IQUB protein (Mohoua ochrocephala), 364 residues
Amino acid sequence: VWMQEETERINRTLTGAERKAALCALLEEETELIACIGMHKLNANVENQQKAILQLLGKCAQPRRWKAFDGKITEMDTQNTLRGKELLEIYRSISAKDIPKDERTSVLLTLKCTVQEHECKLTQEIVALIDREVDLMSREVKECNLEGLRKRICTLFLQYIKIPEFNPEVAGLLKVPQDPLKLYKNVYFCHSCENYLPSTEFPIPANSRTIGRCRSCCQLDNEARKREAYFKYRLILEDLRKSEVDYQDDAKIVFLVQLPDMQYLIENIWNCQSALSAWSDLYELVMVRWDKQREWSPWNTVLLTKEEADAHLKLCNLQKAYEAPFIYKIKQKHIRAKNYFAQFPAMSSFLHRSNNQANANSYK
């Protein structure tokens, strides 16, 4: 939206070489902003990953809890939770930054004694990396040159923690089951990235009959395509829902309408302007009932400014307040809205009910 507004402003105010120079400067600014957003996303992913790791280790260290008949909570540490607390404290210590060399050496020795309790290829590699870091620190190697080695130690120790043989409490928290036969259950194929993923990685709507793209592919598609700016339509829809709740007549249709539907109504049916004054600033427009005695619906609405809407809702007889050509124009818009929303099964029942109600009112 910002890019569109700036481009329109440049095209409106500048011409010739000045316009080209302004557009080039705008393109460079957009590139810098996109790069800045990308850096923020990378930093956020790193922070979220670290938080998820600490949350997992914290669950392993939580004591058993149960509530007594009098409402008091009783906690009890088991051998497995104590093991989880020990591993959590070691992980926090080795992942800490800017600590003195003596403390770092002490933490590494504690880690070495912990992993040496179990003999395997993973623990041997961790011990070898610990010995290497201790040797490099004794040689006065700079801290910046040890970052890669320390990350490898943290990563391998995290793998050590996620093995149920070394940390029994983590067995019930792992997403990947220990039994390979269970991997074949609830696994689907994403035709976009061509990966086999668990069912939790697929956003499936309630009316969907097939498995679509995974979450990462949907996110990538959302970033690559042109964004739809729904902010203005969201404000109108929120104001409309608040006003419908105030009627207290059990209105339902307004809560079925979504942002794309509201966008279609405003852009295609009402042409983004007030029906009375043709005012086109969406921030000052609201949707209200055309006939306030009936529930709001796309075929019983009108787009007006806030002042016009207040005056419209005070009217008792629309036929006397408005001229016949204006009423005919509103009715035509309502017919177009009916034809559009008749495609949705959820709306069809309300559409038939409103038709019967309108016929009964005309008969009266």
Notes: The chain has a mean pLDDT of 85. The beta strands are 64-67, 73-76, 187-190, 195-198, 285-289, 301-305. The chain has 14 helices and six strands.
